[in-house]
Amino acid sequence: MPRRKPVRSRKAKRRPPALKCLAQAETEGHGETAGTSENVPTPPMKMPKKRGRKSKAELLLLKLSQGLDCQAAEPICVKKMLGGNEAPDGLEATPTGRPKRRAAKVALLYLQELAEELTSVYHPLPPNVGPQEPESDSSRKKRRSRRRKEEPDDDDPSQDVDFVPSEEVLLQAEEEEESDILLSEVSESEPDAVRGHTPRMSSAGKAKPQCRGLAPNGFHNSIMAPVWKCPSVTHSLRDQHYSSWEFPDWLPSMCKWTFLSESECAQYLPGEMKSPLFSIQREGIEEDGVLYRINRFNSLQPHEERLDVSFFVGGPVWAMEWCPCPEGSAAPQYVALYCNKDMDEKHSLAELHTGPALLQFWALGTLQPGTGSATKARLAYAIATDHGCIWDMKFCPSGAWELPSTCRKPPQMSRLGLLAVAFSDGKVLLYSLPHPEGLLVHKRAQVKGGPFPKHIICKVQCVATLQVGSIQAGNSSGCGQCFSLSWMPSKPHPYLAAGFYDGTVAIWNLPTKSLLQCVRQPDGSLKLYPFRCFLAHDHAVRSIEWCKVNSNFLVTAGNDRKIKFWDLRRVYEPINSIKRFLTTEITWLLPYNGVTVAQDNCYASYGLCGIHYIDAGYLGFKAYFVAPRKGTVWSISSSDWLNAVVAGDITGELLAAVLPDLAVNPLNVKRPSERRFPIYKADVLPCSSAGEAKLRPKARTYSEMVKEHYLCFRDTDLRSFRNFFSREPMRRMQEQEVKSELSLDRMQLESIHKVRFSPNLDSHGWLVSGGQSGIVRAHCLVGLTSPVGHKLLQECRAQFSTTFGDQQASPSASPSQHGLLQEP
Fold first, then answer.
1. What's the angle, vertex CA 369, arms to CA 819 and CA 295, rounded to 5?
2. Each residue of 233-258: pLDDT tens digit?
3. Model's pTM, two decimal places?
4. CATH of the domain spanning 240-692+702-739+750-815
5. Which of 358, 525, 531 lies closest to 457, judged by CA?
6. Which DSSP helix (H) or strand (E) runs through 487?
7. Is 306 exposed, middle or buried (0-12, 13-18, 19+ CB in 10 A)?
8. What is the three-state SS of 147-186?
9. Are the C-beta atoms of residues 566 and 554 closer than 8 Å to each other?
10. What are phi and psi of 750, to 5 degrees?
11. Residue 607 near residue 625, CB atoms below 8 Å
12. Where are the domains of the chain?
């Protein structure tokens, strides 16, 4: 029989002396009998000593070579080599009787071929086992390199245990090798098909989706993939958690709204009559350098091409919210906001404040993702209050809006929404807001024969006052100011949570009928006491947010630099507590198990100040760094329709970032620096050319600052992101992230204090922002809107028109006839 060259495994690169002796005995045994081979000693051959100890395979082969003359042992060895159930002597057996195997499967084929050569001399092979053809060099090299990566360390004695291969194991190994070689040949022969959008098959047979290439808006497909699936996910979840009508008893009434005259409302109006000088430089459009100055409560005409809107509210903006409306209603969009009376006014966190303030409601018109309003933004009406400044406000997420044409019996009016407001005197008031159309009719009836005030400013009686403490105490418990509010996002939206100065979190049950939690006042309003209070932080609760998917979970951020996740079923201990930095605001995205955090830069490490995504703790992911910022990020907002966040900071830059799929580990996210982009950047520049030679502005008051300087807004073209990383806004943002310096010794006139994404499907993609200058701007992220969102919007509008078409056409129709009203 001709000698066959065996296939060597990784451990048998150098042939040991035992194998040389075995080969010599094999060649001598071809022409002699077994008896003759007993008297022929096998001379030892000198070979280079192998490093390390002999493996079990070599010891087994040596034992076989020394036992060739044992006639009784040969059938046993052959039987064990061909699939016996007993383990050889000296080898540890598994519970089934089969010895432990090594990780290197190539040794199995080597032992099989060697056993065939040894047994072919003394015993015939069984009919089902035959000689195999030698492998080619190319396939052997591929398999060896592949197995080298999968094999464990050779120095581990526990892994160096051989086993005798059976017929089934050998056949399975051959099938695996053939499939692996076939897959490797296919992947090498078709590289172009794999690089396209076709799914690539792994060795396990599972399709791996590929997101390669650029989307039509210029972003990479891997960046836009989570954005495309967000509209359908958000729509399906809102169908489950949102309602068409809630709180039917809290309707706006004409008798609770009193109009103020020009002299009466003067003390509530902001102090600045005109805005500071500002200019707008839009990317791709040659501006003529016009400087604008807007009167109080006035607006610029919306830009025909870029759709941006700018208006002046009279003071620094510190609170802002969009009014929710049903999906597909095509209703006008409203924004509620508050600004300080004076540009230099400041409020201490440790003291209660009272005094006049003005809550404004602005009408932005009918906004769509790709088109803006043709008319200017206008002040719809305002509410005059005497409870100090406003720290936060939140609308009821759903069930509070009805059609303006809804016919109500006087003195009731059609309802625009329910708004909870946190004041600096420690009170939380709940307002039932009417549509401006109904309020205007009431104004004409009340002010007959007299001069009409220029703007509608009213004194309003709230529908409920939310107070901390208990009915037995009779007065406030002294929790201090309320800084943050959050309305329960699941229908029927019964709970409202608030965070206070002393670290207390209070939760009210709004529709309660309990005599211990609800007291009716002589004026008809309600005074509500919380059904649950717990100490969440050692200092003020800066921000609070409810989980949008599961209402049992709440997240709070305090001035003790901690972020805590709470399960409201066991509030004695948070489910997760993270201490990293001083948080200014948090937002919980709809489909993910975590929050996006904006932070103050006073406690942040160098290079880590900015926007972070923090997992709630269930998945155990590390924090994901969304975007770096040089200064304090005052506000952050998220869009459930676009899978994006937007943040405004002290440097005057409004930044947006498209988030990845955060249901997977953020450590595997690619292109993190390509996901963020600027919306606009505000800079303070000198008015005269002579002032350009001066140093940076050092004015500490508003009057000194606007005397010699103006604001310059540099807007980004948000319609497309093609070649975005070589465009001027992106290069400017990246340069400022590395080299910019903060000027904290002057008034930050360009600072952005509040930014909000629209929560409505009809205006998704729109956002508003405002800050120290009192100039509020609205922009549309046209480039992020997708065909999926447009298609969903058309379907919702068709469904809304089918449901409420008769009521839209007939103002005399009752809302109960069309399903707007439900039984409590």
1. 100
2. 999 999 999 999 999 999 999 999 99
3. 0.74
4. 2.130.10.10
5. 358
6. strand 482-487
7. buried
8. HHHHCCCCCCHHHCCCCCCCHHHHHHHHHHHHHHHHHHHH
9. yes
10. -85, -5
11. no
12. 10-182, 240-692+702-739+750-815
